[in-house]
Amino acid sequence: MPPLPPPGHLPRSGNRHIRTLFSLGLSLLAGVAPALDLQWAAVSDPGNPPDRTGYGGVAYAFEITKTEITLGQYAEFLNAVAASDPHGLWSPALKNAPTASMKRERVLIDRQGEPGAYHYVVTPEFSSQPASEISFFDAMRFANWLHNGMGSGDTESGAYGVAGAKGLAVHQPGARVWIPTEDEWYKAAYYQPEPKGGPPGGYWRYPTRSNEPPAAKEAGAPDQNAASFGRDHREKDYSSYNFIPVGSLPNAGSYYGTFDQGGNVWEWNEAIVFNSQRGMRGGSTPHTVQKLRADVRSSARPERKYPDTGFRLARPIQEPVPGTAAPTPASKPQ
After folding, report:
1. Contact indicator for 259, 67 with CB cutoff of 8 Å
2. Cα angle at 265 between 283 and 235, to 5 degrees?
3. Which CATH number is 1-69+131-322 given?
4. Distance between CA 41 and CA 128 in Å, rounded?
5. Quick check: helix, strand or coil at residue 182?
6. Given a cut of 70, is residue 22 above it in pLDDT?
7. Percent of the chain scored above 90 by pLDDT?
8. What tens digit of pLDDT does each residue of 122-147 get?
9. pTM, rounded to two decimals
10. By Cβ atoms counted within 10 A, which residue in 90, 93, 159, 175 is the most buried?
11. What are the extents of the domains in the chain?
C-alpha cells in the first residue's frame, strides 16, 4: 500500500492543511441496549481484491454504521461520561460553531452546570447532523464506551488502550466496536463486485455507485448520485458548514447501504500516516467534489478537532456469512 497520500494532496497538519439506515440490530452489541439507535450495514464479499490504489481489500465480513455518528448520539455519550470531562470530550467550539458565512454563531451542543455536574444539551435542529469537532482520541473513547456497555462504561480501555499510545492505538483483538480501518472504510464506500453490477475492477470512483461526480444536493433530494459538498471553488461559495442530517439523501447510498461516505464531514479511519497522524476520508460539506474521490485521502494529528470532521464505527459481522469468519484485525500502518 502506498506510504503517503497521492501526489498533489497534502495531509492535515497544524494550521496548514487541505481537509481533504441491511438492518437495525436488536442491540448495538451483545448485552447492550440500543439507546443510540445505531443502524448497521453488513459488508460481505470477503476476500475481495484491493483497488488499483492498494486500498479496499478485506478478507472477512464486517458491519459498519450506515451513517456518521450524530450530534444527538454524541451528546448522549457526553451526558454519560463527561460530568467532569477530564479528557476534553466536549469542545467549546461546539457552542460556537461556524455558519455558512464562516461566522461562529451556532450552538451545536451546549455545556451547562459546574464541573462534576456538567450536563450537555444538543440543539434539536442539529441533533441528526453528523458530530463534528471530534478528535481521534474522542472517537476512540466513544468506541471504548460502547465496547464496555455504555452507561458509565470505561472510556480508557476496551476496544483501544488509550493511555501511552499517543493517539496511535489500533483496536484490540476481540474489540466489539472500533473506528474502521482504512480498507474497511474504503470497501464500504467504493466497492461493488463486478458480477453484481459493479464497474470493471469492482470499485467506483465516488461512494454513490458512480464514476461521475455527484451533484451537490440538499436533504431529501431523490437523486441517486448526490452528496453534500461545496461547489466549484471558482463560484466562491464552498465554505458552507450547513451539514445535512445523516442519511437524508436516501437514494445515494453505497452498494452496501452506507450513506454520506462522500461529503457532510470528513471521517477518521485507523490508518497511521507519517508515523504521527491518523487517516481521514470522504470530503466534507465545505470542500469541493474532488475530495469525495476514491484516490483522495487526508490525515491529521489525532488530537486535532475540526468543524468538519467526525466518524463512523465498525464491528464484527452479526449475521454469519457462510464460509467466512469475522476476525478483528489490527490496522496496517501507512
Report:
1. yes
2. 55
3. 3.90.1580
4. 18
5. helix
6. no
7. 75
8. 999 999 999 999 999 999 999 999 99
9. 0.85
10. 159
11. 1-69+131-322
